[in-house]
Design goal:
The complex is a heterodimer of chains A (570) and B (368). Chain A contains 25 helices and no strands. By secondary structure, chain A is mainly α. Chain A is globular, with a radius of gyration of 25 Å. Chain B is α/β, with parallel strands linked by helices and 368 residues long. In chain B, strands 1, 2, 3, 4, 5, 6, 7, 8, 9, 10 and 11 form an 11-stranded mixed β-sheet that branches. The chains are: A mainly alpha (570), B alpha/beta (368). At the A-B interface, helix 15, helix 18 and helix 24 of A face helix 1, helix 3, strand 2, helix 4 and helix 5 of B.
Chain lengths: 570, 368
């Protein structure tokens, strides 16, 4: 009896420990998000010219049409990107996870490869392909159809939506397909037995079951599009349109208005807050528990004569996001002068030799890999803690932590960078000049991705499993470690990758925070593209892609499958 | 030599050259120091052997103790900055050059952030916007220094700051650039207003590019703002960087532009269909200063590096990468000596308020 009592006592001690752990997570989160945000808030309320306390910045940015118009453009852009990305991502996830469509593994791999591509690289490639006069697709059209002009104009709002959506839909795909893997097909089978066709089954049963994942994917795509700087700068300036991020960039031009920029960025937080609220409202309306103690069977839906048409349809997004753009980049990387096109006398492999021999390029590649991996580890661990604390209401105020973890995504990288610089280039915590500046900035920027993904997965785990453990006397942390974590093993890996990959391609933060000793691949690529050197840009883009995919393949070998690769089940 | 061949040389030979250079220069310095000591002890006032003047040698010795110099530059493209770095390291082995090449606004923004945060990082600051220097000088950020050999500059460009806190570090021009398949390119800026260029013009954005801002102010002062109202009728394509005009021209997206002479010539040398036309109504000269920070972590290396700007090696490195040499004894890539170019230069006090005003008016006229 005494030993049992002692053991219970020890277990009760676990309560304190879990509190400590979550408090530590909250402190780290505070340093990553709250402190830089407070700096931005303080800046927004001070005049740029004399540093006086004032609200004039807000009046200025919200009374002039040149500042209001970009906000409208950003909202239109982000909403349409989210819709397009949701449609494509969900369709592909359904087809790949739930049907017997041919070529599933191939399309899954291609979707993943699209995810690796930074959208500013995609935008560059799409300029080669679909610029109104010089785009190869337009030239081909003119040559074939004999018209004066081709049909495509990438320099348009539609063009920017198209390009950003092409590199955002993999988020939706990843969330939805990982949720689908947890949904047993019993209910679908029942629907089929009751005479529903596949369309009805998908729209009435399957999709509503994975609604949290679709909403999380839409949220991430929306915020990604809102914070995107490279693609709007490349495609929308020629279209004579400004968005919030390009306007923010202009505020930082000489003579700079960083405080005005801070004021301009703050309403974005209101947008996050309301989005977050809307997400909560939407999810409150139903129960989405799909993983219970009872095992489920997943059976693919037979498409019959629709197998090949569906496969062709699902091949279109990877064709547009991957095959055509990388074809263009490959052609350019093998050209002496890209303006002459990939014709025999213009072909060369010298740019690849350059990339391997150039010390700067080699260091940048190493830095990208190391910083990305470290940032992903920090963000995933933190997201796991916070999402668990929020969903199981372990500590008072956990909801607030969840909000803090989601906030960084709507802070454009440039603004986050300014907040980081203000906070961590001075004592007591000097990170500037060290690798940690970039690692923590990357971890902060992409924390919401890991958080949204893990939170969506947690929602699908039935509490009865954890309750069983708790009933048997396990402390919350023990329950977490031996029940929840193993169930989430693959989710954790996926979310690590979902942070690692965007960290590899992160630009808008890195470009302000790097020093010569901490340059990364994206900053090198941007430096080169800023000077119009498209041949080495394409070369580095191709190398970055090959390298990332190689590493990810190794990661899969070590850790097992993922929703992005067909799942092996016993 | 083409840009490509140049890059290849750099890539294949950099280590070799450096090591060989190190040995050779090391020997020279050893001999020079020895000769200097001998000459000094024997009371002779002859210059030491090895071609290194005593001032320079002393500076080099001090700089070597500091070991490196941190240089932030917007002056020219990455390949040019790399070539300048390599030339410096070849001349002065033992001093590492750490540099960032970014646009003028970005280096300026980063410097002001550093100053606010009290971070001492950068030694040599090289922006393309003269107004940055006026502002920073007012804040007492720069150290006054007269670089060795600064008298090698053409007289017009000497002592742009009477207090010697900054000096001319690079020269660039905004010119008419065009696709070389065009037989009759525009000869003057005002030719761009002709109807035949409708839908064929490419421009940068004054909010993103200091070169473009400079050009806009110059055109505004020469021809009034109506120039831009009329230019807009020709529906120019607007990019960000002035280099975007080169990209548009070589891809065939657009035919003529207001672009940089250096990057246009570099692209031409690579084999792209592009050329430049010196405008009859003046190329717009952009003077890019260079300065040493007061709290530079490596003050002697900074002085040595700034002095290097007035050597033949520096001008040769610039010419190799199609930028204008600072010295008239080094031939320019365009074949036109700097004193034969017909140029116009904005007054720095005009740029101070002119560029922000120009950006505002630009947004009204072009909508972006």
């Amino acid at each position: 009896m005494a030993t049992i009592a002692a053991r219970l006592e020890r277990r009760r001690g676990g309560w304190d420990f879990s509190h400590t752990a979550f408090l530590a997570a909250a402190a780290v989160l505070g340093l990553m998000v709250t402190v830089p945000l407070l700096w931005i808030l303080v800046a927004s309320m001070h005049a740029d010219h004399d540093n006086r306390l004032t609200l004039a910045n807000f009046v200025e940015v919200f009374s002039q049409s040149i500042y209001l118009h970009p906000i409208w453009n950003s909202l239109v852009l982000a909403t349409l990107v989210a819709l397009v990305a949701c449609a494509i991502g969900t369709l592909l996830a359904l087809a790949i996870s739930r049907t017997d469509m041919p070529g599933r593994s191939l399309i899954r791999a291609l979707v993943f490869a699209a995810f690796v591509t930074p959208s500013f690289l995609g935008a560059t490639a799409w300029i080669f392909l679909a610029a109104p006069n010089s785009g190869w697709l337009n030239r081909g059209w003119v040559a074939l159809a004999g018209t004066a002009h081709g049909p495509f104009n990438i320099y348009s709002l539609g063009g920017a939506i198209f390009v950003i959506a092409l590199y955002s839909y993999p988020y939706v795909f990843a969330f939805v397909s990982s949720a689908l893997e947890l949904v047993p097909s019993e209910m679908e089978s029942t629907a089929a037995l009751l005479g529903a066709n596949w369309f009805h089954t998908a729209t009435r049963i399957t999709l509503p079951l994975v609604r949290p994942a679709i909403i999380a994917g839409a949220l991430v795509s929306f915020l990604e599009a809102l914070a995107e700087f490279g693609t709007p700068a490349f495609l929308l300036i020629p279209a004579r349109q400004q968005v919030i991020t390009t306007q923010l960039y202009l505020f930082f031009q000489f003579p700079t208005h960083p405080n005005l920029a801070a004021a301009y960025a703050i309403p974005l937080l209101l947008v996050t807050a309301s989005l977050f609220y809307v997400q909560q409202l939407l999810l409150r309306r139903g129960r989405f528990t799909t993983v219970g103690g009872k095992g489920g069977i997943r059976r693919p839906f037979r498409l019959g004569r629709w197998r090949w048409p569906v496969a062709v349809l699902c091949g279109i997004p990877p064709l547009l996001s991957l095959i055509l753009p990388y074809g263009a980049l490959l052609g350019t990387s093998l050209s002496r002068a890209w303006g002459r096109g990939p014709v025999p006398p213009n072909l060369t492999v010298d740019w690849y030799r350059w990339a391997f021999a150039n010390l700067g390029a080699r260091h940048a590649i190493q830095h990208s890999l190391i910083y990305g991996a470290a940032a992903a580890a920090i963000a995933t661990a933190l997201a796991l803690f916070v999402a668990y604390a929020v969903s199981r209401r372990l500590v008072p105020g956990a909801q607030l932590l969840g909000f803090v973890a989601t906030a960084p995504f709507v802070i454009p990288g440039i603004v986050l960078a300014i907040g980081f610089f203000a906070a961590y280039a001075r004592p007591p915590l000097v990170l500037y000049g060290t690798a940690w500046m970039l690692i923590v900035a990357f971890a902060t920027r992409f924390l919401p991705i890991a958080y949204a993904g893990i939170q969506a997965a947690l929602r699908t785990i039935d509490l009865e499993l954890e309750h069983a453990a708790r009933t048997l006397g396990a402390a919350p942390l023990r329950t977490f470690a031996s029940i929840t974590l193993p169930l989430l093993r693959r989710t954790v890996l996926v979310n690590w990758l979902l942070v690692f990959i965007p960290s590899l391609r992160e630009l808008s933060c890195a470009v302000f925070l790097f020093t010569p000793a901490t340059a990364v691949m994206s900053t090198l690529i941007f430096d080169l593209s800023d000077a119009g050197n498209f041949e080495p840009v394409s070369t580095l883009g191709i190398l970055m892609m090959v390298l990332t995919l190689g590493l990810v393949a190794i990661a899969y070998r070590i850790f097992g499958g993922s929703p992005l690769v067909p799942h092996q089940r016993a | 030599m083409s840009e490509l061949a140049h890059r290849r040389d750099e890539a294949d030979g950099s280590e070799k050259i450096t090591r060989r250079g190190l040995l050779r220069k090391g020997a020279e310095i050893g001999l020079g120091a020895l000769a200097g000591t001998l000459a000094y002890s024997s009371g002779a006032l002859t210059a030491p052997a090895g071609g290194i003047a005593l001032d320079e040698a002393a500076l080099y010795a001090e700089a070597k103790k500091e070991g490196k110099v941190v240089w932030w530059t917007a002056h020219y493209q990455l390949s040019a900055a790399e070539t300048v770095r390599d030339a410096f390291v070849a001349k002065y082995p033992g001093i590492e050059v750490q540099f960032i090449r970014q646009t003028a606004q970005v280096v300026y923004q980063r410097l002001t952030q550093n100053l606010k945060a009290g971070v001492r990082e950068v030694d040599v600051f090289a922006s393309t916007d003269e107004a940055h220097y006026v502002t920073l000088k007012r804040q007492d950020v720069f150290a006054a220094y007269t670089p060795l050999g600064v008298e090698n500059l053409p007289p017009t460009f000497r002592r742009i700051d009477p207090d010697n806190t900054y000096h001319v570090g690079a020269l660039g021009f905004v010119v008419l650039n065009y696709n070389s398949k065009v037989t009759t390119p525009p000869q003057r800026w005002t030719d761009l207003l002709e109807g035949k260029w409708r839908g064929h013009i490419t421009l940068g954005h004054p909010g993103f590019s200091g070169y473009v801002g400079n050009w806009v102010v110059a055109m505004w002062d020469k021809y009034g703002w109506d120039f831009f109202v009329n230019l807009n009728k020709n529906n120019p394509k607007i990019g960000r960087s002035i280099n975007d005009t080169v990209t548009d021209i070589i891809s065939g997206e657009r035919v003529v532009g207001a672009g940089p002479e250096n990057f246009s010539l570099e692209s031409k040398a690579k084999g792209n269909f592009i050329d430049i036309q010196w405008p009859a109504d003046d190329a717009i000269l952009i003077v890019s200063p260079v300065a040493i920070l007061k709290d530079a972590p490596h003050p002697n290396a900074a002085r040595l590096f700034e002095s290097f700007f007035y050597t033949t090696e520096y001008s040769t490195a610039l010419t190799k990468t199609f930028n204008y040499p600072l010295r008239t004894d080094v031939p320019s890539a365009s074949g036109l000596a700097i004193d034969r170019v017909k140029w116009y230069r904005n007054k720095v006090e005009r740029l101070d308020t002119g560029i922000p005003d120009a950006i505002k008016k630009w947004r009204e006229t072009f909508g972006v």
